[in-house]
Amino acid sequence: MLSWIAALLAGILTAHLAQRWCFPYFWRDALFLTRVMRYGARLEFYKRSSRIVTVVDRFVQQAQRIPEKAFLIYEGVTHSYGELEERSNRVARVFEDAVKKGDTVALLMSNEPDFISVWFGFCKLGCAVAFLNTNIKSRSLLHCFNCCGAKLLVVGADLLETLEDIIPSLQEDRIEVWCLTRESPRPGVRSLLDKMESASQEPIPAERRSVRCLKTPTLYIFTSGTTGLPKAAVITHLQSLKAAGGFWAYSATGSDVIYTPLPLYHSAASLVGIGGTIELGATCVLKKKFSASQFWHDCRKHNVTIFQYIGEVCRYLCNQPVAGNEKDHRVRMGVGNGLRLDVWREFLGRFGEIRMCEIYGSTEGNLCFMNHVGKIGAVGRSNFFYKLIFKYDLVKYDLVREEPVRDHNGFCQHVQKGETGLLLSKICSQSPFFGYAGSKQLTEKKILRDVFVKGDTYFNTGDLMAEDEDNFICFKDRVGDTFRWKGENVATTEVTEILGLVDFIQEANVYGVQVPGNEGRAGMAAVIVRPECTFDGKKLFNHVLKELPSYARPLFIRLQESMEMTSTFKQQKFALVESGFNPSSVSDPLYILDHSEKSYIPLTPSIYDGIVNAQHKV
Ligand SMILES: *[C@@H]1O[C@H](CO)[C@@H](O)[C@H](O)[C@H]1NC(C)=O
What we know:
Blueprint: H1 2-22, H2 26-49, H3 55-65, E1 70-74, E2 77-80, H4 81-95, E3 104-108, H5 113-123, E4 128-131, H6 138-148, E5 152-155, H7 160-163, H8 167-172, E6 176-179, E7 189-191, H9 193-198, E8 217-223, E9 231-236, H10 237-244, H11 246-249, E10 257-260, H12 267-280, E11 283-286, H13 295-301, E12 306-310, H14 311-319, E13 333-337, H15 341-351, E14 355-360, E15 369-370, E16 380-381, H16 384-389, E17 392-395, E18 397-398, E19 403-404, E20 420-426, H17 440-445, E21 447-449, E22 457-467, E23 472-478, E24 482-485, E25 488-491, H18 492-500, E26 505-513, E27 522-529, H19 537-547, E28 556-559, H20 569-579, E29 590-594, E30 599-602, H21 605-612
Parallel strand pairs: 1-11, 3-4, 3-5, 4-8, 5-6, 6-7, 10-11, 10-12, 12-13, 13-14, 27-28
Antiparallel strand pairs: 1-2, 8-9, 14-15, 16-23, 17-20, 18-19, 20-22, 21-22, 22-23, 24-25, 26-27, 28-29, 29-30
Helix pairs in contact: 3-4, 4-5, 10-12, 14-15
2-acetamido-2-deoxy-beta-D-glucopyranose (NAG) binds near residues 302 and 303.
């Protein structure tokens, strides 16, 4: 009998050790998957019963359950769930008769609590809300209204100025403009704060906002387009609910304090950050703008436990001078995207054991990876079960021709484990792709057909990834006509078009180059100057300053005599990207954007060295 028990124990021990040895992540994977499936089951229930609890419904529930609890902390002022609920009711009351269920309204605001009051106020009226990127300049901004069909715009008091030159066009298009001020700041712009103050705080009946279908659009979030102008990604209730489960999936709770220094017009802050805070009933410390020097001070002051990041945030924090109390804080987790191996290591070394949870997923995409194990350098983790839920593939990609490699039958080819490939995600009813508002053509461009069999369709993420032996997925690079700089997408064609407006430029070719010590790629333009004209650095500087948001301005200019005729446009671009911006190896004249000189100035070897050694800030 005893020997039988001993044998059994030995057996269990061996099995346990074997499992530790062969499947070291088994339990963590299993626990994580259980959570994901529980959340998925809830969404599935909504789908079947058509009794959908949207993010705003959830907010209203929390406001009834915990009205006194701090929902937002902004510039030292605490706003409770109850207060925000009341304030959003007032917004809804102001516009009750002005908009109909199903209308779209646009929101141009910086991070502040009223961003959320206005957003939720319109949701309570059954409207969809379009978040406008506050960096976008006039021309692109007008285009945004056409995409999503908004008839009304609410603008923050601090951003009215940026609208100045398009207000007449907006009026022509009969778009009402409301500003968050007490008095009308100029003719044609109505004030909102005074109306909110005198409006009733009674909730609008829930019927007005009820939705029957998870695939009803609730938001439009603008992302950079490959054809130049921003694209309005359609965010349905399904996506907003999925994103709101992010913190929860990483086992955050209602007692967490979440720090959000990212702009609310991006999906990370609004959908994952605010949506996730509401899902948990937690508190969000909202920052108007990220500040590396205030970061840890804020975290200590508010007992922050979780922060949201993009790769740049962590890099800027690492670039701060070392302080004695760096590990003295309660931050236990960071949730975000784009943290690179080197910065990740340094960050943990300096600021202590913080679990960094990468979430990979584009605003409009239908795929999501989460690195729940916290393995340094990976954006996500996959396994057999995950592949049953998310049908994605990595396929061979031709960097020069900028397209997937097709075999003699015209089908794409899987890459080997460890090899880099283009990430594709299958479009099906479980993971639909809702495309972009107002443009079938743009939507079609993101779809790849006949990938492995005739008739299948995949969403092309445009990201190059590799999956290793242990099923960790690592981000390698981004392909195509966009690159990322300072946390924003830059569309090369948009920049090309703007450069083409300068009188001395005959031709421009825009691309991104890697700059040591920086995330993403900096903009660079190869430019051909018109015959009989000369390059005017000051003029070009003033033009890009006026026409392009800061992250999209080309940092480097390369003057070319002529475009090489023997190779294709794509081959030329590839060669340009490869040759970079080192004046010692590039024989063409190079210029760099210089804010102190307010001009493009010659890029000398000493400036180049300064950039590489991180002495010259870019
Ligand atoms: C942070 O935690 C400490 C210790 O529990 C507490 O004394 C302090 O009041 C908390 N601060 C805030 C802003 O909640």
